[in-house]
């Protein structure tokens, strides 16, 4: 048997396509860290781009409600599997970006390489790169990496992880507020205490106990000058 080329069986062809596209976009700079946008600390408007009536959507919504219920959620449903999915995901992302939310979540549950293949679309990667809104991806499971993940500002390992990355935990924020309140109250108490000490010190100064000392010397000088003036007037 003389073999002129070899490739893994099954999904080997897809892996080769994936690696070739990843190399191409990497060389173009689409994955460089300096192009990544920072996530807002306290996002109040969140765009959720995912399949309608899916487990990933439910997980994301439940986690958002538990962690950061004060945020407004704007859903942009789209298919997340199949040959027609990529263009519709692109359209949903562009609409979410035009609506100027604080952050975009692009999520999908686990699946095979074929199931997640729409997230390895070149046009989708370029769209993600060009978004003005920070985007977090949570596609598949921890071991799954797609081109969309590389192009995103932040990649999380699951849909739930994407939410946990994008929003703070309300319990942590409450604790932070309590700590800040405590520090402010302590600072005010310390300032009042220092002012009380200063006031006590000033109150005990002789000049405040006998304020006539402030002008007694000047009064003596004035009397002396008055006597001299009367003497010359005579």
**Cα shape:** rod-shaped
Number of helices: 9
Give the strand line-up of the largest sheet: 2-1-3-4-5
Low-confidence stretches: none
The mean pLDDT is: 92
Helix residue percentage = 40-55%
Q: Which H/E pattern describes the elements?
A: HEHEHEHEHEHHHH
List keywords for this structure.
5-stranded parallel beta sheet; rod-shaped; single chain; 53% helix; alpha/beta; 234 residues
Describe the structure.
The chain has 234 residues and is α/β, with parallel strands linked by helices. It contains nine helices and five strands. It has helices at residues 12-28, 55-67, 85-98, 122-130, 147-151, 159-166, 170-203, 206-209, 213-233, and strands at residues 45-50, 72-77, 103-108, 135-139, 154-156. Strands 2-1-3-4-5 form a five-stranded parallel sheet, sandwiched between helices. β1, α2 and β2 (72-77) form a beta-alpha-beta unit. The longest helix has 34 residues, at 170-203. The chain starts with 11 loop residues before the first helix and ends with a helix.
